[in-house]
Write a structure and sequence with these properties.
Number of helices: 4
CATH class of the largest domain: Alpha Beta
Radius of gyration: 20 Å
Number of domains: 2
Number of strands: 13
CATH superfamily of the largest domain: FAD/NAD(P)-binding domain
CATH topology of the largest domain: FAD/NAD(P)-binding domain
């Protein structure tokens, strides 16, 4: 199991009362308290709601299959790392920063990697075309293959199926198509929130 950056002892030393696996169920503004999933209440003087983001879902058949992963947590990283290595095949959906970093790491481990990007180039929302081209050239030099502008039809046990009927063989498919703000709690009645897309 990978080691966390800050363990329980480090958090305590920093004065942080960390409650893992304790989701917030409700916020009582009048009583200035947060109710947790187990029914306990945490009083507060000031409350910061930082619920983060959740992965953007991929709406195609097979996207919830056993050979599909997302990289959002330490457990996700451990699972993906265990599936990589010489002779293994990885398909990465999404040519953003996470997808490219994963592709580079997988190639260093000897994994055959194909990155599938729906748009015509990498990092279209993040960097100018000139920088994206440099990164593409570097990744290609390391053995990463790219497919641009391709629609996705399904994910099967054999790999990723494109809309044109082409199969990209893969032992593991990692979906990295962005995230959406997790605003379910702040959007409940009585709360005002300002959110920004990640």
């Amino acid at each position: 199991m990978p080691k966390a950056i800050a363990g329980a002892e480090g958090l305590r030393e920093a004065g942080i009362d960390f409650r893992p696996s304790a989701p917030a169920a409700a916020i009582d503004r009048a009583g200035q308290a947060v109710t947790l999933g187990d029914g306990s209440r945490l009083p507060y003087a000031r409350l910061l709601i930082a619920t983060g983001a959740r992965p953007r879902a991929l709406p195609i058949p097979g996207a919830d299959g056993p050979n599909v992963a997302m990289l959002r947590s330490l457990d996700d990283a451990a699972r993906i790392r265990a599936a990589l290595g010489s002779g293994r095949r990885l398909a990465v959906i999404g040519g953003g920063f996470i997808g490219l970093e994963l592709a580079a790491s997988a190639r260093r481990l000897g994994t055959e990697v194909t990155v599938v990007e729906a748009l015509s180039r990498l990092l279209s929302r993040g960097v100018p075309a000139e920088i994206a081209e440099v990164l593409e050239v570097r990744h290609r030099a390391e053995g990463v293959a790219f497919v641009f502008g391709a629609g996705l039809a399904a994910i099967s046990a054999e790999g990723l199926v494109l809309e044109v009927g082409r199969l990209l063989p893969a032992d593991l498919v990692v979906v990295g198509i962005g995230a959406v703000p997790d605003t379910a709690l702040p959007r409940r009645p009585g709360l005002r929130s300002t959110t920004a897309s990640p």
